[in-house]
Amino acid sequence: MGDTKSFAEAGADLELVGIQKRFPGFTAIEHLDLTIPAGSFFALLGPSGCGKTTTLRLVAGLEDPTAGKILLGGKDVTSLKPHKRPVNTVFQSYALFPHMTILENVAFGLRRRKIADPLGKAHEVLRLVELDHVADRKPAQLSGGQQQRVALARAVVNRPALLLLDEPLGALDLKLRRQMQFELKQIQQEVGLTFLHVTHDQEEAMTMADTVAVMNKGRIEQMGAPEELYELPRTVFVANFLGQSNLFLVDVEGGTDQVIHTASVSGRISLPRARSERDSGTMTVGVRPEKLRLHAAAPPADANVNVIGPARIIDVSFIGVSTQYTVEVPGAGDVHVFSQNVEAGPAASLGDEVWLSWLVEHTFGLADDHLETGALTADFSTQAIAAQAVSE
Known about the structure:
This protein has 9 helices and 20 strands. The protein is α+β, with helices and mostly antiparallel strands. It folds into 2 domains: 14-227, Rossmann fold (3-Layer(aba) Sandwich); 241-391, CATH 2.40.50.140. It has a 6-stranded mixed sheet with strand order 6-7-8-3-9-10, with helices on both faces. A 5-stranded antiparallel sheet has the order 13-12-11-14-20, with no helix packed on it. The model is unreliable at 1-8 and 372-392 (pLDDT under 50).
């Protein structure tokens, strides 16, 4: 992609201080404090209705906060009109001018701001997104992925201190979306701008962002590196929104300095004290489906391994790279196991009696016990959460 440092400028820190946004009869954002360091790729992830798009609109200046301040590079921009802010937005719809060539689309903002050499700078950024060879075409002659890259080029060429991405890949098919995720991350690293990416797509957030903030009902539930949020979720919502989790309601029975021992209907489950938000009473513990192993007989006792069973396989889904088993565990409901297909085909069959094991170190202890619906479920999917948010 060549050296683009000639036009790149570092992004700026974005700081939201005590942001609240109320609409008539509805509070979209309760109280939001958030700092996004300059040059980072930050994803705001959450279901429909969680407040993430409202946050993006507040930063862009398309909405005014009810309370709080927005600082960009240390400068208070709360009262600035959208066009006065050093912010550009890439929308899902691309919003390209159909009658203009690709080159003119990209140069448009530079011309309007009377920046020197608009066409030269437009060519430079089109080379960055590898589309300079179609500079003379009209948007209708380009594929969806190419149009998306033009929209990105048009935003990047203005050298915004902050680039806002609003579900930018939502209209693309899966293969193209994967390709664009990779390209977006490369472009962000190359031009060094601050990216704020708003999405409900967990895979997209985890693939691209340095830092992910999971948002729920106008609040940030947890924030951190993608692997940190996945391996060590703190709440039931995060455990189920970011990937899938098997959750068990347990009673703490004691332990050591390092380990907490708990009892559940399914059997004894231990977890590292450092991986638990609680250490007494009734609590919820969890483990990711890919950490589980299936056994045809009860495995030998081992202090480092949790074992539950006997249980029965009630569903087997072969999906190529892995086989997904649903196992009915007495007292714990359905437990999901993702088993990588190292051998040919599934290793266990529908109706088999099995035991499940996983390493104690892969167990996590959550701060809460259930979603507000009262449902403690292992497969509360993104779609289900989104549907719930829409129906509220």
